[in-house]
Amino acid sequence: MASLFPKPRKKLVFLASGRGSNLEAVLQAVQKGRIRGIPELLITDNPEASAIGVGSKYGVPSKILNFSSYAQKEKYHSDLLEILEAQSPDLIVTCGYMRILKKDVIRSFPNRIINIHPSLLPAFPGLNAQKQAFEYGVKISGCTAHFIDEGVDSGPVILQGTVKIDPEMTERELTLAILKEEHKILPLAVKLFCENRLSIKNRKVSIL
Ligand code: GRF
């Protein structure tokens, strides 16, 4: 029998390095009551990130770990892990976070870190995915919301959004069209996670 009590909301922590438009898409969805989550903290490696302002607009505090001011880069990663463990989120969302997470972070939060990547994975992993797709000449590209595993952009795929590339489309137009899709699928992936509707078997994600 289903519980008569509402399920508790999931604790969310975000990692972002830049503009923060995906962060904003998720926070808007929380604000509108579409995501049953509590955005608790934004962590950024970049003190100049506009994402910090986005977070504060929605009342989300930021913790700045200025990557470039760390003489020992290992210390950055251990500080990050310490903050994450102290915060103990149900879900970490990396949205425009430009660093690769260390294995110990990934192992501490297995299948509890969601990333948004601007290509149809497994095509065009890594940096500048939109440019890679544009230059390759594919006819369809898009974006992927996926769980993070120990590889680069290689974790189980949750959702994908597609963009048709017309012959006259510029790389900038492609990037903007993909971003529009990102703003749809990342909040949806977070919503599904918060409703316990994602199940993973043999790396395949089913939506319950
Ligand atoms: C997005 O295209 C995301 O897919 C990529 O970096 C960009 C970040 O944009 N990883 P924003 O900071 O969310 O606006």
UniProtKB/TrEMBL annotation:
NCBIfam families: PurN
GO cellular component, one term: cytosol
E.C. number: 2.1.2.2
Pfam families listed in its UniProt record: Formyl_trans_N
Involved pathway(s): Purine metabolism; IMP biosynthesis via de novo pathway; N(2)-formyl-N(1)-(5-phospho-D-ribosyl)glycinamide from N(1)-(5-phospho-D-ribosyl)glycinamide (10-formyl THF route): step 1/1
Gene source species: Leptospira fluminis
Keywords: Purine biosynthesis, Transferase
CDD domains the UniProt entry points to: FMT_core_GART
Active site: H117
Protein origin, superkingdom: Bacteria
Gene name linked to the record: purN
Record-annotated Formyl transferase N-terminal domain positions: 10-190
Protein name (record): Phosphoribosylglycinamide formyltransferase
Gene3D superfamilies per the UniProt record, alphabetical: Formyl transferase, N-terminal domain
